[in-house]
Write a structure and sequence with these properties.
single chain, alpha/beta, D-Maltodextrin-Binding Protein, domain 2, 2 domains, six-stranded mixed beta sheet, about 40% helix, Bact_solute-bd_prot1, ABC transporter substrate-binding protein, SBP
Length: about 425
């Protein structure tokens, strides 16, 4: 993607999408050398927001000569950042996932390669090696300093399963279908999922990978070629589960919020939930929740039910403006990577981290249980870093089509492949 195409895509939204927080019209406006402007998703309802804001307050007490000015956005952060970058008034540091638009940032100069700072600031030993690998682009550039990670297992409400006469968490196709029918007979939804948004996209990708090895999955999601035998079998498996009533009613119109509400209120028995969502499960539901993987079909290429794991959640990106304030950026990042600061996100917010820590999420039993799954599940590929940015939204639209009852496997495949041709 060209620099012009990336950065001008949202220029018309500059007036329509204001920056939240205590900043000016554009991120870098009027920020002197002693003010570090941080553009972040923490400060909304995102898990860890309260801990982050408290940590910033602690940073101010320890560094009275420096001010961190937070500019807060939710899902529109990438669009707003690109608008401010176009005006050369972007924030100094950006805290956002590696996903969709952000995949191209380092390549087009919207952010810088942070590898030169990694050892100079003594941070390499703090970050897990796998996280560094996932954040390194094909040209060997480290896009950002990894911070948040996630385990993404499947949560099962064992009380609802038991009430339906299901004595164990399903691990196979047949067990899942039997459980879904039993749950429906008792008035409970089986697998709830936001078929209209990213949660549905992830579960569809996970199900398709039942018959795909990691390299085959990377090929499919980077090229849009779902014609291999494994991809076709995975799509057929998904359609078979959908038509057997495994997914919640009208899943194609549900969102992530709908999914969380259905599970957290005990109306649905199963959800595929990242650890930040598991941390929000109410205690009354959590004590009857077991975490595991998504059930396998006969002939699957995996040895265990599948789950997703990734280190590509929120990281610290440095902008071109930030390179003019490296002393301030270094102080801030050293503080954020300190063991006591990292531990707070684990113990207070239940976040999984891409950073070494001995802290335990004891207040968040489901997060801790997900972290202990180990080889009881088989990891499959998270498609986020492989899907071309311009195909991402069309792929979510295709996901809704896939969850629509009556859509054939051939039509699902066509919709997925068409998402790449639209890009």
């Amino acid at each position: 993607m060209s620099r012009r195409r990336l950065l001008t895509a949202g220029s018309g939204l500059a007036a329509a999408v204001p920056l939240a927080g205590c900043g000016a019209a554009l991120a870098g406006d009027g920020a002197g050398p002693d003010t570090l402007v941080v553009h972040t998703q923490l400060g909304t309802t995102a898990a860890g927001s309260a801990t982050y804001l408290s940590a910033v307050a602690d940073f101010h007490r320890e560094h009275p000569g420096l001010t961190v000015r937070n500019l807060v956005n939710g899902d529109d952060l990438a669009q707003v950042y690109e608008t401010s970058r176009l005006a050369r008034k972007e924030a100094d540091v950006v805290m956002v996932n590696l996903y969709d638009k952000t995949l191209a940032w380092t390549d087009v100069g919207a952010t810088v390669d942070v590898a030169p700072y990694l050892d100079d600031w003594g941070l390499r030993g703090r970050i897990l090696p796998q996280a560094l690998r996932e954040w390194t682009d094909p040209k060997g550039r480290l896009r950002a300093f990894p911070y948040f990670a996630t385990n993404w297992p499947v949560a099962y409400n064992t009380r609802l399963l038991e009430r339906a006469g299901v004595s164990a968490v399903p691990t196979t196709e047949s067990e899942l279908i039997v459980a879904a029918r039993a749950l429906r007979a008792k008035g409970s939804m089986p697998v709830t999922v936001g078929g209209e948004d990213w949660t549905g996209q992830k579960l569809l990708a996970q199900t398709i990978q039942t018959f795909l090895r990691a390299d085959e999955a990377v090929h499919a999601y980077s090229t849009g070629d779902f014609g291999s035998r494994g991809a076709r079998e995975g799509i057929e498996y998904f359609v078979h589960l959908r038509d057997a009533g495994v997914f919640a009613d009208k899943a194609q119109g549900l969102t992530s919020d709908s999914m969380f509400t259905q599970y957290n209120t005990g109306r649905a028995a199963v959800e595929s939930a990242m650890s930040s969502a598991l941390a929000q499960v109410p205690a009354g539901i959590a004590k009857h929740t077991a975490v595991g993987g998504f059930p396998l079909a006969p002939g699957a290429v995996h040895a265990r039910p599948t789950a997703l794991r990734t280190y590509t959640l929120i990281a610290f990106w440095i902008s071109p403006n930030g390179t003019r304030k490296t002393d301030a950026v270094e102080k801030f990042l050293r503080f954020m990577y300190r063991p006591d600061t990292v531990a707070r996100f684990i113990t207070e917010a239940g976040r999984d981290m891409a950073v070494r820590s001995d802290a335990l999420a004891t207040r968040f039993p489901l997060v801790a249980a997900a972290a202990r799954l180990g080889d009881r599940v088989s990891d499959v590929v998270l498609p986020d870093v492989h899907v071309p940015p311009t195909a991402n939204q069309p792929l979510i639209t295709a996901t809704s089509t896939a969850f629509t009852p009556g859509t054939s496997a051939a039509r699902v495949r066509a919709a997925l492949e068409s998402a790449y041709r639209q890009s």
